[in-house]
User: Fold this.
Amino acid sequence: MTDWVRRAFTRQIIRKTRKGPQTFEITPKDELVYGVKFAICMTVCLTGMEIGNMAFLHTWNSEVFSAITGLIGLVTGIFIGHRV
Assistant:
């Protein structure tokens, strides 16, 4: 599997020069990539935990749901904020 998080944050800049247009790629820092991967993995794990809680205990855990909501907001904010 290719590194899709790194590709999502990579920017391409086209600069006009005398020789013609040149394309440069600006790659994100490793800390950003690892942080986004960690947040996505934790969102998936906490969602599985909430599904298991509802399946086996037949109850809703609001603490797990608030953690899921916070992580989804974090990941969405990172993706939207980095593209500006």
